[in-house]
């Protein structure tokens, strides 16, 4: 039963986390970086995502209640933020924003790693909800540990996926990345709109 619960928690968290969907965005945001800095972005992205997911998994219910925020309101806010990012990707504005020379490299890396990579692309309302639901359904402390283990495993795979993004860059080239980025932007736009719609429906019902 514990193995079954772990598989259930892992599949739900990993499928919504969708690290492969973040690869085109990661490549676009880091294409001008040397490999060392690109790997640093991947590392910090996963660390930030882990901190966010663990915080909401362990303390999510109290955090939202403390600020008087419903999960539906969080979905709406996350959807709006993701929509703005996706529109920048479709319009080709994302690249211009990340190549501002006056921004210090360390600050830029932290900024990109935290947003939009760690949140809302990885640790967004969907993955946060999946983690919170899995923890809420845990029957005992053993199941709760399995939820945390599922999060760690999912983000471990995500880290390896982001590290291999450089190989994708070498194969498809800059033009391919731009085309892929705009296509991903369209998909993200639809996801963002659906996220907002679901949040509004939940808030009204």
Précis, in short:
With 205 residues, the protein is an all-alpha fold. Helices cover 88% and strands 0% of the residues.
Annotation keywords:
205 residues; mainly alpha; 88% helix
Structure description:
- With about 200 residues, the chain is mostly helical.
- It is about 90% helix and about 0% strand.
- It contains nine helices and no strands.
- It has helices at about 1-15, 20-30, 35-65, 70-90, 95-100, 105-120, 125-135, 140-165, 165-205.
- The longest helix is centred in the C-terminal third of the chain and has 40 residues, at about 165-205.
- The radius of gyration is 17 Å and the shape is globular.
- Residues about 95-105 have low confidence and may be disordered.
The CA-CA distance between the termini, in Å, is: 35 Å
Number of helices: 9
Give the overall shape: globular
> H/E element string?
HHHHHHHHH
Query: What would you report as the Rg, rounded to the nearest angstrom?
Result: 17 Å
- Please state the oligomeric state of the protein chains shown: single chain
Helix content: over 70%
Strand % is: under 5%
- What is the number of beta strands? 0
Mean model confidence by pLDDT: 80
Low-confidence stretches: 95-106
Output the structural class.
Answer: mainly alpha
What about the largest sheet? none
